Amino acid sequence: MLRMATFCEEIQHLKAAGLRPTRQRLSLARLLFAEGDRHVTAEDLYQEARGAGIQVSLATIYNTLHQFTAAGLLREVPVDTGQSYFDTNTTHHHHFFEPEQGVVIDIPGEAVELNELPTPPAGYDIDRVEVIVRLRRAARP
Amino acid sequence: MLRMATFCEEIQHLKAAGLRPTRQRLSLARLLFAEGDRHVTAEDLYQEARGAGIQVSLATIYNTLHQFTAAGLLREVPVDTGQSYFDTNTTHHHHFFEPEQGVVIDIPGEAVELNELPTPPAGYDIDRVEVIVRLRRAARP
DNA sequence: GTGTTTGCAAAGTGTTTGCAATTTA
DNA sequence: TAAATTGCAAACACTTTGCAAACAC
To answer: What is the C-alpha to C-alpha distance for residues A11 and A112, in angstroms, rounded to an integer?
Structure first.
């Protein structure tokens, strides 16, 4: 989604999310959303931004990732490495996770279906269901 | 499982796992396994141990939780709060997670079934599938 | 006795925060 | 110009580590 976004489209993207299109947010949005679905950590994005000559601080990376997530432009993936992973794909889908490299790969929503959802405890609703398929290196065949 | 474990049973439990039954490990094992299924963070267990008058350091709590996990006595639950959660139930099951309180609740393995598993990327096998059902407070009825 | 385990304090990692300077509308 | 945003550095929370003393076998 948002492949080939132009500058103006990205501005609309942010404004629609209620975020001022500042230089940093625009630059980061273009890195994140220009190239299709991605999974990044704060550090990944920081390195990528600096590599691209974008002047931005790590604190702003964190702020921006959380603001984008709150605005529904990103989703956080619950992997239990120390770091937070953010996913540019906010549609219904799940994840493979390879712990050694820390690689996250999308699984299309249709590829995993639950037969029935468990009844939540009284007083609670189901917010969403996350399926993480943990991978390990295949045994020699 | 391991309800009502006696001292000697706990020693066997550790020895079977290849761990020397030291005073600290025994005390922690009894806290963890005497009372049925539990979900604890390192800090939880540390406070509980100190409250019970068990002399143990936080570093040892961390060591022990990881050793127990490596030995298959515990499982880590992939929730993305900053902390690590350890589960004394190592059988096939899944979890509810309530982010505001940080509460983890077991879902029996049979209550959630996947219709089919996605094919892992080449060179990888599926290690295990984790289903986290995120809860939010119910809207006023 | 020998190798393992423990505890402490220090270091490490990832993330958040306070606040002055800057930018946006 | 008023309000929002940024960057820096310091603070933070959680976890790991190095090493000497204590312990298990």
So the answer is: 35
